[in-house]
Structures are given as structure tokens and as C-alpha cells.
């Protein structure tokens, strides 16, 4: 029985020596190879040449697909509106998420709504525009970007959630000198969440 074990270890060593491209010159390795208990430590990873270490990429950018010109992380949506030479300041703004809650939600919890942002239907953007008239405001809303221009201010705002850019409303309050833009959120699972 011991002869079978030794012969199978010797066969494994011989096979490893044939497939391996490296030669072990150490005397310690030769002594270990003669000892059957030391050879029992050999496994499938010991057969063949050692794995080659990949060269580290020196550049910071690695293309995922050879046909891609740039990655999505490099292009910020709405960057066409950025103008570094424009000295106009950015006005103060606030983003508030809104949801419609009825008594059936508040007391009975029938529609399963909770205070999380996932249950919100709209986004309210309040923009303070001191010394500005309603006729001076130029507003352009895309799916993920809000662009506001006045003679004194400019705002290029990347929205935290996609919206329906054709639906929504804007209202200017002269007494507060504030523009309120209400935008309906565009969620992929709205037909399930908003039932």
C-alpha cells in the first residue's frame, strides 16, 4: 500500500517536472521531493509554469469597449451649458421632494406610502432671484438638468432624479423674489410604486 502512494507521488512529481518550465536548483527542494509527506502538499496549482503577473496600467483611463471613444463617467450631462468665462453668480436654491398623501395613507396605510424619497411624485426647486423680474428669466429643463439664465444670475443644476421634462410648472413670486419649479419625477417603477 505504501508503495502505491509513493509511486503516485513520484508520478505527480514527474508530471510536474515535465510541465514546469522552471527548474528548481535548491537542494532543499530535492530533499523535499524524496520525502513523500512533503510531496503530499503538491496540488493542481503546482503543475505548469507559475502564473504571470499582469503589468499594471500606468494610465488612469482604461477603455471597457474598444469601440468606445470615452466612458460615461467622463461626460457630465448638461456640461454644454457650463461657461467658465461667464462671471454671473449662481443663485441660492433648494430642492424639496413632494408626495401626495391622503387620509387613507395617513391613518390606514392603504397605499403603502412611507416618508422615503421612493414614494415621492414631484420635485420642487426653489430658486432665490433677488432684483429680478419674471420676464428676465429664461428656463430650460431637460430630463436630468435644469438651466436657468437671467441677466444677473445663471444656474446649471444637475437634478438628483430624472424627471418628465414636458410636464411641470414654474411660478415666479415677485414679493419673495423667488422662482418655484415643480417637476414630476420619472421613475422606472412608477406604475407599481404609485398605485
UniProtKB/TrEMBL annotation:
<protein>
    <submittedName>
        <fullName>Dynein axonemal assembly factor 6</fullName>
    </submittedName>
</protein>
<dbReference type="GO" id="GO:0045505">
    <property type="term" value="F:dynein intermediate chain binding"/>
</dbReference>
<dbReference type="GO" id="GO:0070286">
    <property type="term" value="P:axonemal dynein complex assembly"/>
</dbReference>
<feature type="region of interest" description="Disordered">
    <location>
        <begin position="17"/>
        <end position="58"/>
    </location>
</feature>
<dbReference type="Pfam" id="PF18201">
    <property type="entry name" value="PIH1_CS"/>
</dbReference>
<dbReference type="InterPro" id="IPR041442">
    <property type="entry name" value="PIH1D1/2/3_CS-like"/>
</dbReference>
<dbReference type="GO" id="GO:0005737">
    <property type="term" value="C:cytoplasm"/>
</dbReference>
<dbReference type="GO" id="GO:0051087">
    <property type="term" value="F:protein-folding chaperone binding"/>
</dbReference>
<dbReference type="GO" id="GO:0030317">
    <property type="term" value="P:flagellated sperm motility"/>
</dbReference>
<feature type="domain" description="PIH1D1/2/3 CS-like">
    <location>
        <begin position="90"/>
        <end position="184"/>
    </location>
</feature>
<dbReference type="InterPro" id="IPR026697">
    <property type="entry name" value="DNAAF6"/>
</dbReference>
<comment type="similarity">
    <text>Belongs to the PIH1 family.</text>
</comment>
